[in-house]
């Protein structure tokens, strides 16, 4: 099994709903975002490229690319980040992470790995999201898990179910009948920084 | 015949522990411990690091002291491998310095940098063989062991308990280990995410800056210990060390200037933008200070032959400043100019730079350096490392 995600850039409106769904589902601490919607061309978030009236808005959602050849896995000195053999998801073991941040240095997709610089604080006093989410730890690196706790319950990642424009598609690349295998058929796509040889599992449909 | 074998055997300085310098170093070390306590209780938020610039002063300290450790082993082994007798009396101090520097780099600067120091044993029980950081850990552990063994054997030869010829194996191993400081550069240059680090000149630059760092620390020590009578290093020897350092600094200068010019020449592109950030943007102050320190150190050390120790000291300190900025700028120019640089939701810490260490980072680093200075002073006091009258 090889889990992968496709993001249809023609459908993405930059609404950030997937970011918020991820934040709530995984009970992310303040300041931590595993899934961020970047603005292409604009100087600040959600600002257009160009000058009026020739403006253009374009978005690029970025989360962990769950690479087939992950730079972070090679770099981690203690094996706290590893690739699951059964489905290809890159996992961060909070209990093993020494907090050296070498994986953040090694990852070409800047910002998808985030460090808890302080004790996790939350927007509200009660925990949000799924009860099976691993508790967040102080001084460790964390990142998108493809909602592995939801996959264990035969559910799709939270960002997939939330996207109002169905811009995100998820599934098993080894299954020709999966949503993602069907979505990739006949479509052109690219990977982020493909030339770096990391072989990402995120397909950007164009 | 080795020079040091002519020195009386019973030489040991019988000084007290509570000298003013030892007290100052101990107090600064305690300041460092306090800063670490604050960092442990409040988290790495007390540093000025962030998601973009996740590495800073502690990693710079790690790079510099790894360099001192490796350079010291090279400095100590070369006289025995290439028959440079005039340097042999000073190799005991070099190996002892190497031992302390490797403890500083391998243990202290890394331990304070990582978020969970209580898990550091995972390096041993769960080491990842594909990680350059793990290779570096092995090298630094080897430096510690080698420096201690080498120091012990040198003292034994000095005291007449061993033949000088018996030093050859440890000298060969130490020389090879010293050269392997290039592995520290692999921590950086093996990363596809960091194209400006990924370049074959980096291992050479790391090797030369290691030698520079070791030489300047030893020149500063030599001037101080000459004055106190602990060693008797002739001025022409100090001048030779200064000139070798000046040549190495020239090579570093050529590397730095070439890298910048090569990046700027196209006039556009990601590397151009990153280097503009360095020479005329947020990183400019650090870059120009680096160049000024490099040039000034080259001039002072290059002309140090017949002058007094004060010129060497100033030149050596400027060389240390230059090495510091070389390492800081090397880190910053890459970290603040990542491959993907889109506007998006805010991340923790700054994204534009420059990175200026927080007071806690500075206090903690000073504490680590002071702890090293204290160990060095104690070693000079208790071990048979000198060749002057005051060391007897």
What's a concise summary of this model?
The complex is a heterodimer of chains A (206) and B (392). Chain A has 206 residues and is an alpha+beta fold.
Write the topology of this structure.
The complex is a heterodimer of chains A (206) and B (392).
Chain A: E1 3-8, H1 17-25, E2 36-39, E3 49-51, E4 54-56, E5 59-62, H2 71-75, E6 81-83, E7 90-92, H3 102-106, E8 114-115, E9 141-142, H4 148-151, H5 158-162, E10 168-172, H6 179-184, E11 189-190, E12 202-205
Parallel strand pairs in A: 1-12
Antiparallel strand pairs in A: 1-10, 2-5, 3-4, 6-7, 8-9, 11-12
Chain B: H1 20-42, H2 57-81, H3 91-113, H4 122-125, H5 132-158, H6 168-179, H7 182-189, H8 201-228, H9 235-264, H10 270-280, H11 284-302, H12 309-335, H13 359-382
Helix pairs in contact in B: 1-13, 2-3, 2-5, 2-6, 2-8, 2-12, 3-5, 3-13, 5-6, 5-7, 7-8, 8-9, 8-12, 9-11, 9-12, 10-11, 11-12
Rounded to the nearest angstrom, the distance between the terminal CA atoms of chain B is: 21 Å
Find the biggest chain interface: A-B, 55 and 47 residues
How far is the first residue's CA from the last residue's CA of chain A? 25 Å
Sheet having the most strands of chain B: none
Give the SSE order of chain B as H and E letters: HHHHHHHHHHHHH
- Beta-strand percent range of chain B: under 5%
Q: What is the CATH level 1 assignment of chain A?
A: Alpha Beta
- Please, how many helices of chain B? 13
Classify the secondary structure makeup of chain A into a structural class. Answer: alpha+beta
Extended strand count of chain A = 12
Radius of gyration of chain A: 17 Å
- What would you report as the Rg of chain B, rounded to the nearest angstrom? 21 Å
Q: What's the shape of chain B?
A: globular
Poorly predicted residue ranges of chain B: 1-14
């Amino acid at each position: 099994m090889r889990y992968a995600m496709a993001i249809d850039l023609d459908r993405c409106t930059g609404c950030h709903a997937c970011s918020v769904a991820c934040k709530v589902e995984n009970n992310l601490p303040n300041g931590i975002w595993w899934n961020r919607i970047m603005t292409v061309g604009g100087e600040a978030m959600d600002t257009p490229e160009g000058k009026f009236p020739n403006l253009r808005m374009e978005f690029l959602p970025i989360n962990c690319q769950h690479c087939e050849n992950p730079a972070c896995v090679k770099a981690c000195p203690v094996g706290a980040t590893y690739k699951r053999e059964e489905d290809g998801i890159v996992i961060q073991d909070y209990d093993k992470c020494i907090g050296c941040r070498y994986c953040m240095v090694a990852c070409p997709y800047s910002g998808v790995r985030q460090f808890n610089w302080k004790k996790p604080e939350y927007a509200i006093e009660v925990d949000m999201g799924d009860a099976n989410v691993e508790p967040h730890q102080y001084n460790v690196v964390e990142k998108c898990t493809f909602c592995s706790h939801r996959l264990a319950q035969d559910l799709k990642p939270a960002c997939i179910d939330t996207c109002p424009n169905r811009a995100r598609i998820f599934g098993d690349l080894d299954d020709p009948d999966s949503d993602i295998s069907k979505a990739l058929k006949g479509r052109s796509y690219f990977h982020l920084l493909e030339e770096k040889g990391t072989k990402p599992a995120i397909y950007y449909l164009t | 015949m080795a020079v040091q074998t002519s020195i009386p055997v019973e030489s040991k300085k019988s000084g007290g522990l509570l000298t003013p310098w030892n007290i100052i170093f101990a107090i600064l070390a305690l300041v460092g411990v306090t800063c670490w306590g604050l960092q442990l209780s409040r988290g790495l938020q007390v540093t000025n690091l962030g998601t973009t610039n996740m590495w800073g002063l502690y990693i710079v300290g790690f790079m510099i002291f790894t360099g001192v450790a490796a350079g010291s082993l090279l400095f100590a082994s070369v006289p025995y491998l290439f028959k440079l007798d005039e340097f042999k009396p000073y190799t005991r101090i070099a190996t002892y310095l190497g031992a302390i520097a490797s403890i500083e780099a391998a243990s202290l600067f890394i331990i304070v940098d990582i978020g969970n120091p209580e898990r550091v044993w995972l390096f041993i029980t769960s080491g990842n063989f594909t990680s350059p950081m793990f290779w570096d850990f092995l090298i630094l552990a080897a430096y510690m062991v080698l420096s201690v063994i080498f120091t012990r054997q040198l003292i034994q030869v000095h005291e007449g308990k061993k033949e000088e010829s018996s030093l050859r194996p440890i000298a060969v191993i130490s020389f090879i280990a010293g050269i392997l400081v290039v592995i520290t550069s692999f921590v950086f240059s093996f990363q596809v995410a960091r194209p400006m680090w990924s370049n074959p000149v980096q291992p050479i630059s790391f090797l030369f800056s290691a030698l520079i760092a070791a030489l300047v620390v030893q020149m500063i020590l030599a001037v101080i210990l000459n004055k106190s009578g602990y060693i008797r290093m002739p001025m022409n020897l100090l001048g030779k060390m200064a000139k070798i350092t000046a040549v190495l600094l020239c090579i570093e200068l050529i590397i730095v200037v070439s890298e910048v010019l090569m990046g700027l020449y196209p006039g556009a592109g990601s590397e151009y933008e990153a280097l503009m950030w360095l020479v005329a943007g947020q990183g400019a102050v650090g870059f120009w200070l680096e160049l000024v320190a490099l040039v000034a150190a080259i001039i002072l050390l290059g002309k140090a032959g017949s002058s007094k120790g004060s010129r060497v000291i100033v030149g050596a300190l400027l060389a240390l400043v230059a090495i510091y900025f070389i390492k800081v700028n090397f880190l910053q120019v890459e970290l603040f100019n990542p491959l993907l640089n889109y506007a998006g939701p805010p991340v923790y810490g700054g994204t534009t730079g420059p990175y200026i260490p927080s007071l806690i980072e500075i206090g903690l680093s000073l504490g680590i350096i002071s702890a090293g200075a204290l160990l060095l002073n104690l070693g000079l006091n208790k071990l048979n490392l000198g060749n002057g009258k005051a060391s007897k």
